[in-house]
Amino acid sequence: MRGLAVLVASLLACxxxxxxSSVVSSASKTDTTEVVVFAAASLNKVFPEIAPxxxxxxxSSSLVDQISAGAPADVFASADRRTMDKAVGAGLIxxxxxxxATNHLVLITPANNPGGITGLDTxxxxxxxxxxxPEVPCGAATVKLAEKAGITLHPVSEESKVTxxxxxxxxxxxxxxxxxxxxxxxxxxxxxTFEIPGAAADPNTYWIARVKGTRNAxxxxxxxxxxxxxxxxxxxxxxxxxxx
Length: 244
Description:
By secondary structure, the protein is of the alpha/beta class. Helix content is 41%, strand content 23%.
């Protein structure tokens, strides 16, 4: 009798496991073309490679403001936990957010480094430095790193999204800027990259969640499944670190 009970329990466990697996597999295969995704600007290259969708890329905090104002979105992906928590606190998120990647800041200059920058140090004095605004994830991370390094930064402009910082540096409009490591990878030979001591050990964490009130819940869930499952390899190819 005991052997029969063990066998039945084992079969039930296998059945449940198989059912859960099929649900996940089915979700990831659902068409996501019509899913409206509001995602951090630093994801503008990698997300379209993982799944088709209707994308809006911007600074994470700006996206929260847009969703709060009624902009239609099915999925929200943030470049830090603080901004995702802001969305959760505002009642904009349905379910529990999921961490799917990490990223850290680096210092970049134009390829020929005309300002003679050597890193996040006194070589930045008197140079045209561009950073993200403190209210967006890349800006908050910049403030944190500068404090740890014991240096006061004097940016000539503070941008609302990291891709604008990248654009100003790669075009030569600025002498230096702080961007994510993945942005430096995207820029390739257009910029010179300087790692910042301690930055990789304390990276930004990226989070994704379904927006409350979506009319395409199944599509939103399918998109999130693709990002958090088969999308991990593509994220790594673009320089993102794994979720922690």
